[in-house]
Design goal:
Elements (H helix, E strand, L loop, with lengths): L5 E9 L3 H9 L4 H4 L3 E8 L2 E6 L7 E11 L4 E8 L1 E12 L2 E12 L2 H34 L12
Antiparallel strand pairs: 1-7, 2-3, 3-4, 4-5, 5-6, 6-7
Length: 158
């Protein structure tokens, strides 16, 4: 097992319809409004951006994102990552009864030299840090989606 290779899979069940969940996840610029660990998010190009992340551990990650798939009909958003993390991440949003199921998948390696050096002794700590971040993100998005007018328009709305 390579301690510098991480694969994550998280499922968020949300009471909002898939289109609203997809639109919120597509609007990366709004993540700091509802996801406590996303400190900043900005566009760097038409299909690219950068987020600054800090969870429980005392370090920040600056992650460049480039959208490689945006498919509202299939509910799929996929991006490649570079910077302090390299790899890819993908959201797949589907109907789940009256609400939605948002599947998050990520395959990544640290790009930050310190994180690579600490990978073996802190591998489980890094995984736990990710789990906390995802749990808080799910709660934040669920609350965000219940606020009137909080869900952004999808790209198809113009």
């Amino acid at each position: 097992m390579d301690p510098n290779h991480y694969r994550f899979r998280d499922v968020w069940r949300l009471s909002a319809p898939p289109a609203a969940v997809y639109a919120a996840l597509e609007d990366v610029r709004s993540y700091p409004l509802w996801w406590p660990e996303i400190l900043t998010a900005r566009e760097t190009g038409p299909d690219s951006g950068e987020v600054v992340v800090r969870a429980l551990l005392p370090y920040r990650l600056v992650i460049g994102l480039e959208t490689v798939r945006r498919d509202p009909a299939a509910g799929v958003l996929e991006a490649v990552m570079h910077g302090d993390l390299t790899g890819w991440s993908r959201w797949t949003v589907t109907a789940d009864g009256p609400g939605s199921r948002a599947l998050f998948e990520e395959d990544t390696r640290p790009g930050k030299p310190l994180l690579r050096r600490l990978a073996l002794p802190l591998h489980l700590v890094f995984r736990a840090n990710h789990a906390v971040m995802m749990r808080r993100g799910r709660r934040g998005l669920a609350a965000h989606l219940t606020r009137p007018g909080a869900a952004p328009r999808s790209t198809e709305d113009g």
